[in-house]
User: Fold these one by one.
Assistant:
Number 1:
Amino acid sequence: MTPETMKLLAIGLATGIGMIGPALGLGMIGFSALQGIARNPEAAGPIQTNMILVAALTEAVAIYVLVIAIILAFVV
């Protein structure tokens, strides 16, 4: 295996493993929000507002992983 191959493999593994957390987090956020709205429909507005805020913060982690992968691809 060439060093270039190993670099691409490392980038792929880092990105794949790094994206698992945000993906699971977004799934759990959506599930919990829908469950909360189903139990208390009157609170749908505040629940949805909080869900969007937390989902955006969770997505930020995925964006950080993507930035690191791009840096590894072009710098290392």
Note: The first helix runs from residue 3 to 39.
Number 2:
Amino acid sequence: MLWIKALHIVFIASWFAGLFYLPRIFVNLAMEKEAMVTERLLLMARKLYRFMSILAVPALALGILLWVGYGIGRGPGNGWMHAKLAIVVLLIGYHHACGSILKKFEQNLNKRSHVWFRWFNEVPVILMLIAVILVVVKPF
């Protein structure tokens, strides 16, 4: 089980690296006016989105294995797990929102400012903070 936990943490950290960095590319895309630079940023964003999508699969699968297979977070006194699962659902939604935003940039349909993307970039940081507190502290 410790190997599964370790791998789960590694894949979560790797997935979050993408969730943190892709919106930073969006900030630059929202400010950029030069076509060549925009194309380079779009290429980076596409590759990163594809890579972080691949990383999300084992992160989620290992988490499900720990929960269902090993019983972590199951039974009475584990309300923290329900809250953590809600955070996971929000993160999956955020991940898909990043894909939708990327498509808008590819189609030159983005209407949001770089300031909006700077705030959007803070969402996974807050969600990760809450998830870590839930897992470590287990407040309920």
Note: The longest helix spans residues 35-69.
Number 3:
Amino acid sequence: MLGEYRITGSGASAIAADIEGAVGSGALGPGDALPPLRDLARELDVNPNTVAAAYRLLRDRGVIETAGRRGSRIRSRPATAARDEIRIDVPPGARDLSTGNPDPALLPPLAEALAEAAAHHARTPALYGGPPVDAELARLARAGLDADGVPGGPIGVTSGSLDAIERVLAAHLRAGDAVAVEDPGWGSLLDLVPAMGLRAVPVAVDDDGPVAAAVARALQAGVRALVVTDRGQNPTGAALSGARATELRRLLAAHRHVLVIDDDHVHGLVDLPLHCLSGATDHWALIRSTAKAYGPDLRLALCTGDAVTVDRVRGRHRLGAGWVSHLLQRTVVHLWQSGAVDPAATARAYGDRREALLGALGARGVTAHGRSGMNVWVPVPDETGAVAGLLQRGWAVAPGARFRLGSAPGVRLTVSPLAPADIEPLADAVAAVLRPAGAGRYG
């Protein structure tokens, strides 16, 4: 069953640690079946309840999955094997379009903002017992949310979008609960859900966001939460349209117990209006990150939502990290107040590259998608062949396996590094590698 590997341990924690370590080292691989409870208990000379507890720990950590009488197996993508590890070595001279990073040239210089934050700290140092959210940051954030039609709610601050999503999910869900996620979707989220002991339910996506029929099936199947990317969806560039948002709100009206999370991670670099699902159910959260507009190392995200959700997130945060550095918060305040980033100009810069690439691919008969943001998604019949073929031609792209659960293969091209002169050669390379095949959806 496990080849030559022999599980060891005399307590639940030790057994679970041994199995998790074996997965991390590669001694146990995805799909490997674990011994039945009683068989392993006899082998280790422990009570079957001890093995059952070990398996529960592993399931809650996202390492294994259980299927009733079919037993327990190592997950196809255990939490110890992050999707970011699905990468290719970029040889010297190749252009790397695989990282998903913003263009450094479009990020603002931070020296002045950091200096102003330090000066503010000198005047009013943040000390233990102080408010976790800077008052001016909360005021500016709330004004921006009001302008975008986001329902009223308190403001929380976390260390990035994924941190916020994890805290919101933990505020309401328990191990074993099902979460509807976009497929293809953000690889880090697809890793996070099973790592929290939750069960991911894939929802198909098209250019206007999650497909209503797929969301309806997920709701009927009993999901406890739905995570939606409002704009600049990673990897497809989808953006929730007004008509789709209305359609999804109608579906959610009959499932008000479902937690809804809106991810607006590209706020500040898109020109499409915000359409969100916030307020469609009793518990909801909308999250805005500064990473794409101001740089990935500025680890700050704003979170608003219903009072219960934000209060739970804040309370749990206080027990751990305590707060996000007020130096970072004041840095963002200065960036907002100084107008260091022109969202319209930034959106045009990414949009021009994205639209140029989409047009060039379309002219060559290649179906591609990228309604917003900094990525273009190209459906392919064979990811391995497409990635290898493009690498041979000097272009490194991200394999779709990073972003998929059950949807069709594809590759992601990040437009951030592209100059106008790159568009035609890149489109020629993609067309040369692919046998064009249209696809109206990504799943």
Note: Residues 436-440 have pLDDT under 50 and may be disordered.
Number 4:
Amino acid sequence: MTASQPAKTPTSAVMKTYGRADLSFVRGDGCWLITDDGDRYLDCASGIAVNTLGHSHPALIAALRDQAGKLWHTSNLYRIPGQERVAEKLASLTGLDQVYFCNSGAEANESAVKMARRAAYENGQTDRTTILCASGSFHGRTLGMLAATDKPVNRTGFGPMPDGFDHVPFGNLNELRAALGDHVAAVMIEPVQGEGGARDAQDDYLRGVREAADEFGALVIADEVQSGIGRTGTLFAYQTSGIKPDIIAMAKGLGGGFPVGAVIASEAVGNAMTPGTHGSTFAGNPLAMAVAEVILDEVTAPGFLEDVRRRANIMRSLLAEVAGRHPEAIAEIRGRGFLCGVRLADSVPAGDLVAALRELRMLTVPAGENTVRFLPPLIICEDEIRLAVESFATALASMTSR
């Protein structure tokens, strides 16, 4: 380069599909992320409800290293013993029967929809193709799940959308019942909405969904992609209601950071899926199964989820105290367990508060309805919870005093 040529600003070849913060982390330790400069950030985002056991968990590292030294991938042309072990655990923990493995939450929800429609088809009900979804829902970014998701802005420029998805108001049983009929294959519901603003569907509503679906001959799909694997204080959020879905879609926390998803289904649904009806090259490979097995063992260990509930209640109580001091800024504390949301007044933009928290070395995630989500690893300790809430209070005070 000659002296007359200006230096070029470095550019990235990464497609600009994300509004990224100008942060780069090189290491993780428990509930902390560390930059190459050594700055430590308290992680209350968990990669969007993914890092169930935090960062660099010894049991996960050991399992992945051990499996990596043996076998990475064979495809689903052959038996994968790890799949069989993890499937048995998931079936036992839910009371359902069969498990299909995939790679992500969107794939899990796509698979769940295919299963529901195929089950109706195999039952001779070929007109049952509609999936009823809820307002505020988020089920993924594939074309099918864009149609299922109640966020029209995400569909701009990607039309036409696939048919067969309708939406009813979240939490309204009367509207749900009015929409049901012999054209509906399944009702798909997030027991606690994540992207929709940490909105809890409530147990009474879930019981009503189950009863209405049974009355009209539809299946129930529980989208537990964000709320599952202990995040709300039980293994799955639907379990506090006492219902049993026909299909459960899950991902995120199942791998603790390794890409893996799964769909758990009743025998009637699972038997409708025969060789060639669905599949994936990478799904459920030995690496993914080694990690998922450890996650399930750790989360279901005696006392683990009980302590998650205890510590989550501490976080909620502390946030409620902050809300009491700032009624003009905080409208509501939402969610359940460590899928906790703070809905802010319109005068306090959630995105701005998330940015202010980053300046205080704390990571959170915005959501719908002007909500800030707290999604820490399930191992977060009481001192870290108190630090997180203190940082939140500091950032909030700085914004409301302007």
Note: The CA atoms of residues 98 and 265 lie 5 Å apart.
